[in-house]
Sequence to fold (292 residues):
Amino acid sequence: MAAGATQGQIEDTGIRRLPVTCTIIAKDEADRIGRCIASVRDLVDEVVLVDSGSRDETVAIARSLGARVVHNAWPGYGPQKRFAEGQARNDWILNLDADEWLPPRAQAEIAGFFTGGAPDLAGYRFRLETVYPHREAPRPFADYHAYVRLYDRRRCRFPDSLAFDAIAFDKATMRVARAPIYHQTIRGLRHLLEKNKRYFLLQSVEISRPKWKALIRLPFEAPAVFLKYYLLRRHVTGGFFGLRFAATIAWLRVYRQLALAGFFPRATQAMRGSLSQEARAGQGPGEARETE
Fold:
């Protein structure tokens, strides 16, 4: 790994950027990668995009915004993010997905973390607030998930897993940021279905559950998940789209239970074969990732 860089003066702009590398993994994200990079390029020392075979303008857009683009054959989510860590010239990493971006509040807070030099911490956990398609900010009382996204790679790293890519939060060495990161996880409900079905099949390659457990859960899964998302995760504030979103997630969770219990063996085997083909071709599965 490259040695940690020091905070330095940026040529031409006069902006003092942070000794941080923003890492992004992507494939076919031309419609979203620009917003992601634009939200960090004046904040961090470098942006590293690891591309696994984009067929659109993702790479060209990233380079036009000053990102360094590295190609890597798709090894799975955790391994790809670990590969991105290794490409960074700084030890502090800000990890974003292509469908995420920093609002001004998050930019200012992150800059504040480095006011007196690099923090004496392992990392920071952020709220990732959901932004509906075709909107630029979260709805009132938007749902969110919390993940470690700013961290010192010498003290923690992403796990080496095909499907799971979350750094464990350690209360003793990490802190919780106040400002959120915005996350526009889907382009629409059809995208929501396709993205999650593929992700659950990817999980079924690594995870196996007894069929009897899935059958016991099935009568309760859909209504329980719908109420959880519509009320507890506050999609009730999202109008008709929020209602449809919660109903779609409920159906998808039933699909997940069946997939992990082995009710779709042909689809799971096809996913296993697809992963092998994509690895040989140097392409990733694009957006196969759970949306909640």
About this structure: The longest helix spans residues 211-232.
